[in-house]
Structure formats: structure tokens, C-alpha cells
Amino acid sequence: MAYQQLKGTGVALVTPFQKNGSVDYTALETLVNNVIKGGVDFLVALGTTGETPTLSTSEKQAILSAIVKYANSKVPVVCGIGGNNTEEVVGLLKTMDLHGVYAILSVSPYYNKPSQEGIYQHFKAVAAATNKPIILYNVPGRTGGNILPATVLRLAADCANIVAIKEASGNIVQCMELLQSKPEDFIVLSGDDNLVLAQMALGMEGIISVAANCFTKEFTDMMNLAIVGKFDKARKSFYKLLPGIDLLFVEGNPAGVKSVLAHQGVCGNYLRLPVVPVSDATGKKIGAFLKTM
Prior knowledge:
Largest sheet: 8 strands, parallel
Oligomer: single chain
Order of helices and strands: EHEHEHEHEHHEHEHEHHHH
CATH superfamily: Aldolase class I
Strand order of the largest sheet: 7-6-5-4-3-2-1-8
Number of helices: 12
Mean pLDDT: 98
Low-confidence stretches: none
CATH topology: TIM Barrel
Helix content: 40-55%
CATH class: Alpha Beta
Shape: globular
Number of domains: 1
């Protein structure tokens, strides 16, 4: 079956910064090496977790090129290219250096709140602008709009290179409707670390994860158990991780995961405004959780 490389555990990489706000490429290389060693199946560069809205165009290109270099063809690299200006997204797909990029993750247009027809036409234009496989990204909590299953199915039928979706609506009923009706070779990935085990039981085939940045081996081991249907064992691992997963999001993403990575010595606890580090209270809870692992 095509696009098997987009199944399993993908990790939405953070962008490490130095204290002065510049990109910390040494820490980024360490992170990439760590997650590959920990067993992830693919990397996602320039996603929301990477604080992409605060990166300049030149920084985005440099970060992407660095991740491709550090991955060194060991695992596929997916690049986030999306937005609420269709013409601009199409332009980026045509002008960015996507050498070494396996697929594109493209978020549903945010803020404009387009209709389902508008969402369809947006992604149809995006698909026509590239030959690379496209993963749709549905995250209504951030975009203010929801890609309904009927729209996903229409895009999957009409655009040969729209091959998957990262589904982060948090709506289990919607997930079931999509999984029940999707084409056999269309991949549905979870976008919710805290729901993934239930979603895998329903028929999802992987995740694009935040937690895999910092709980890499534990998370990928749990996912690999779920993939082969060993849910009894996967459930034990999942419930052990769940308090830590919840801590990653209690004060927003990527503030939580950067706090964990700082505790682990992978990168500094530096973010770009308007995102700020977690509170001291949450930081202490994170430190306490890490002692249980």
C-alpha cells in the first residue's frame, strides 16, 4: 500500500532557541538524533509545535534544510506549509526548497472561517501546486473552523496526492464517521496525544505527536503495541504516560514540551512571544513527573 511511511509515530518537532532568541541548531540536531534513536517513524518540520508563526521566511527554510540534513534519510521528513491565504500557500509550495521533503502537512485556513466549499477549493489549489503527498490538518481549536468528513472524502476522491489527514478535532464521533467512510488507502492520523489509544482502536494508523519530542521511546513503544493490536500492554504504557502528556498542554503548546526538554537537557526553555514558559508551579509538576519515569 502506498505511503506506508506516513503511518506510525510522527513527531511535530519543536524549534529550540538560544537565550538571545536565535535558532539553536546544535540543540535541534540533538533533538532530531534523539527522536530518531527513540524510534519515531517520521519527522514533521515547521508545524505549530515549532512556533512557526514566529519564524521568518528565511528561518523556516534554514530550519527545514537543517532537519533534512540531520535526518540524513534515516526517516522521512514532512514539512508544514499552510495558511489562510491560498495564493501565498501555493507560492510557498512553488518557491521553497523542498529537497529531501517526503510530504506536506497543510493546516486548514484559520481566522477567515471559510465554508466547506471554501476549504475544498483551498486544498484543491494547494494539491495542484505540488506533486508531493499532502496531509490535511484539521485542528478546529486553533483554526476556528472544522473540516467535516464529507469534505475530507471529497478531497481524497478528487485530488490524488491528498493521501492523509491529521485529525485533531477531538471529536470521537467525527473520527468514527471519517474512519468508517474513508477510502482504504487514505491514512487517518491522530493529532491528539491524549486520545490516540482510543483512536487507534477505532482504526487510525498513527499520530503526529507532541509528546514524542520528549517521551520518545515510551511513546513510540506504546504506539507500536497498539499498531499490532496489543492494547492490554499499550494501555498500561499509555496510562503511565498520561499525566505527563496532560502536563505538556496545561499551559499551552509548545511551552509544556519545551519545559520537559529543558529538564532533560536537550534544549533551553526559551520561546518566542506571544508564547511564554510555563509557570514555576507547572515546571515543578513536570520535574516531579519526570522522576517517576
